[in-house]
Structures are given as C-alpha cells and as structure tokens.
Amino acid sequence: MKHAFSIFLFSLTLGACSFFAETPAPEAAAVAVVPKRDLVAEIRNEAAKAGDVLVIEPVQNPAVTILLQRIQDADAVGAHVQAHALTLEAEQIEPSNPVVIQFKAESQLHTNGFAMAEVLAQKSFDASAQTGPLCVRNWLTIAEARQARLNAEGAALARARAKECPFKAVERL
C-alpha cells in the first residue's frame, strides 16, 4: 500500500509539473521571402529592349558621357550612393541635359524619393526628343513612382505611354 501511495504521489507531482510547464509558443507562419527589386535596372533593361529605333539625344560634354557610364557601373554593383554623387557631378556640368535629369530621377528611385523621381522624369521627358529608349525610361520611372505611391491607374497610363516611345526609323530604298 505504501508503494502504491508513492506511485500515486509521484504521478500527481509529475502531472502537476506538466500542467504548469511552459507550452511552446505556436510557430509563426512561414513567410515567403520576396526579393528586393532593382527598379532602375528593370527600367534600363526594358528601355534597351526598345530595339532598333530612332534615337535622338543631345550632344553632350565628353565629361558627362564618362560620368554617365560611371553611374551605370556604380548602379550595376549596388553602389547607389556613389552613383547619386556622380549624377550630381554631371548635373553641375550640364543641368538641362535630359539624360542627366533622367539619371537623377532614377537615383531618386533608389532612395524611395518617388514624388521627386516622377517630377524629374517628367522634366527629362519634356526636355528630350520624346522618343526612343530615354522616353521609355522616363515613362517607366513615372510608372514605378506612381505605383509606389499606390496610384495604380496613373502607373498603368505611364506604362502605356512608354509603349508609344519607340519610333521606328524610316527605311530608305
């Protein structure tokens, strides 16, 4: 009987311990990791797909041409702060160059300056020939800026405008 009482007491103690033991917290639902998009790279790649089109760009200072290439190289490796500094340097040389203005707009996308990106892309478009890859970049930048500010309708309109940019060169006989 003494042995049965010991087993009963042991069982009661074990049951009490398990009752007060911490229960593990339910595991959080698995969340899919969404890769961070490089909007600028996507915009530039899409503009490059414009194909064989008539491209009209301003004659620019050779120093600006070099800076623009350095900006693209910096962006390609994720050095967006450096790219932005180079953009400001190019702007000091040619402040009204639509290509430089577009690079500055794209730089704003990297820092989530979506309202300024839209303003600058529109300014670049207004100052440009409004055709070709630069035009595509202008309108896709505007689209992404609008999308980021939850203006889906405005973004769709900008994407439609981007599709109108390529202007096929006239074939000569």
Describe this structure in words.
The protein has 173 residues and is mainly α. It has one domain (35-163): Serine Threonine Protein Phosphatase 5, Tetratricopeptide repeat. The chain has helices at 2-20, 39-48, 62-76, 80-93, 98-110, 114-127, 132-148, 152-163. The protein is globular and about 35 Å long.
Outline the fold blueprint.
Blueprint: H1 2-20, H2 39-48, H3 62-76, H4 80-93, H5 98-110, H6 114-127, H7 132-148, H8 152-163
Helix pairs in contact: 2-7, 3-4, 4-5, 5-6, 5-7, 6-7, 7-8
Question: Any key phrases for this structure?
Answer:
173 residues, 8 helices, mainly alpha, single chain
Mean pLDDT score: 80
* Strand percentage: under 5%
Structural class: mainly alpha
CATH superfamily: Tetratricopeptide repeat domain
CATH class placement: Mainly Alpha
Pattern of helices and strands: HHHHHHHH
Look up the CATH topology.
Answer: Serine Threonine Protein Phosphatase 5, Tetratricopeptide repeat
- The tally of beta strands, per DSSP, is 0
Number of domains: 1
Note the gap between the termini.
114 Å
Number of helices: 8
